[in-house]
Amino acid sequence: MSARQAMVLASNNPGKLREFSTLFEPLGIALHSQTEFASFEVDETGSTFVENALLKAREACRISGLMALADDSGLEVDALQGAPGVFSARYAGEGSSDEDNNRKLLEAMDSIPEGQRTARYWCVLVLLRHVDDPVPRIVQASWEGEILARPRGKGGFGYDPLFWVPEKAMSVAELSAQEKNLLSHRGRALQALIEQLR
Fold first, then answer.
1. pTM to 2 decimals?
2. Interior CA angle at 69 toward 188 and 189, to 5°?
3. pLDDT given for residue 1 in this prediction
4. Assuming Cys at both sites, which of 88, 183, 185, 186 could form a disulfide with 143, CB separation 3.0 to 4.6 Å?
């Protein structure tokens, strides 16, 4: 990749932009928010994380004229046949809060005994060189854990207070930001993508 190549991040989340920018800067890639070009939300109509990430990346490419990076991620619970899956952010309905989604997950898991509460976070990253890129670069990573019977910890977001990490004997919401970035599905997927780009 050429020096200081520009890329757009298909997200309106400033925290995500900061996190990703730090990782891409050593590669000579200047990451821009899609909000610099237009304010929009893409309808996530795909049935998989890959499809939704592609939809977001393609629209960011179209709007900006730059290569684009998009991610789609969520929680997959074995006892719920993979739910909430691609509906993780809106599990309790459109516009639902993290607390709403966590409450619905706890209700759905109420009768599931300890030892049968396995789950994983998934992250899919898609990199498009241009809007019609026929071979998008796609990486994915997961993070294995279990669903707690009640929330623990104050950090993180989403389902983090309910996601137990056995090797750390903590919920994700109890981990430091640095530990989470090293262990998480998003951190692993980003590192895999960066290794490919190097």
1. 0.89
2. 10
3. 42
4. 185
Local mean pLDDT, 10-residue blocks, the chain (198 residues): 78 82 86 89 91 96 96 96 96 94 98 96 96 96 97 93 97 93 91 89
User: Are residues 151 and 162 in contact, defined by beta-carbon separation less than 8 angstroms?
Assistant: yes
Beta carbons of 125 and 53 less than 8 angstroms apart = yes
Q: Quick one: 52 exposed, middle or buried, by C-beta within 10 A (0-12, 13-18, 19+)?
A: buried
User: What's residue 40's pLDDT?
Assistant: 77
Helix 14-24 vs helix 185-197: angle between axes, to the nearest 10 degrees? 40
The length of the chain in residues reads 198
Q: Hey, what are 112's tokens?
A: 């599931």
Q: Which of 71, 72, 98, 132 is catalytic?
A: 72
pLDDT of residue 177: 85
pLDDT of residue 2: 47
